[in-house]
Amino acid sequence: METQDTPPVVLIGPMGSGKTTVAKHLAQRLGAGFVDTDDLFVERHGVVADYFAAHGEAAFRDEEEAVIADALARRDLGVISLGGGAVIRSANRDLIKQHGYVVFLDVAEDQALQRLGEGADRPVLAGDPAGNWSRIRQARQAYYTDSAHRVVDTSGLDVEAVATKIIEGY
Ligand code: S3P
């Protein structure tokens, strides 16, 4: 695959939808470079939960936006997975739709919560992981749908099957 000419696959979706796992697997199958924007954030600013506690969510979203812009400007990446809240900013939504092949990984609530466990490293879930997850998911649903070129329902699918579905539509 020529990452120079082909838009990168950009994975969006709620926390626990398997974005990072699928992205790694997909990148391997495509023989392409991969990055997760949460990992890039951590490289630059340290642990997300600590950053939230020290600087608040607005500062996190500013830095997240910068990280996403940098990732999309790179030419060595075939797959990019985004933090679940990236779509709340219109600048991010516009950028990913313009420069990527955007895939929304849809996920059932129980499956996501099972993956997330106590959600300790997700500050937006703090206090009430299940209640917060479903409230946040509801609030972002239209953003996920509107930002995506493709929606993949991951219910009952393993990582390989999800990657195959993405490749089929790519
Ligand atoms: C967030 C999702 C997290 C991370 C941060 C905020 C969100 O990424 O960016 O904790 O607001 O949905 P994952 O979707 O990879 O868990």
TrEMBL record:
In which residues is Mg(2+) bound? 20
Subcellular location(s): the record lists: Cytoplasm
Indicate which residues the UniProt annotation says bind substrate: 38, 61, 84, 140
Q: Which residues bind ATP?
A: 16-21, 122
Instruction: List the residue ranges forming a coiled coil, or say none.
Output: none
| Job of this protein | Catalyzes the conversion of 3-deoxy-D-arabino-heptulosonate 7-phosphate (DAHP) to dehydroquinate (DHQ).
Protein's name according to its UniProt entry: Multifunctional fusion protein
Organism of derivation: Enteractinococcus fodinae
What does the organism's lineage look like at the top?
Bacteria, Bacillati, Actinomycetota, Actinomycetes, Micrococcales
Name the gene.
aroB
Shown portion of the complete protein runs from 1 to 170 of 555
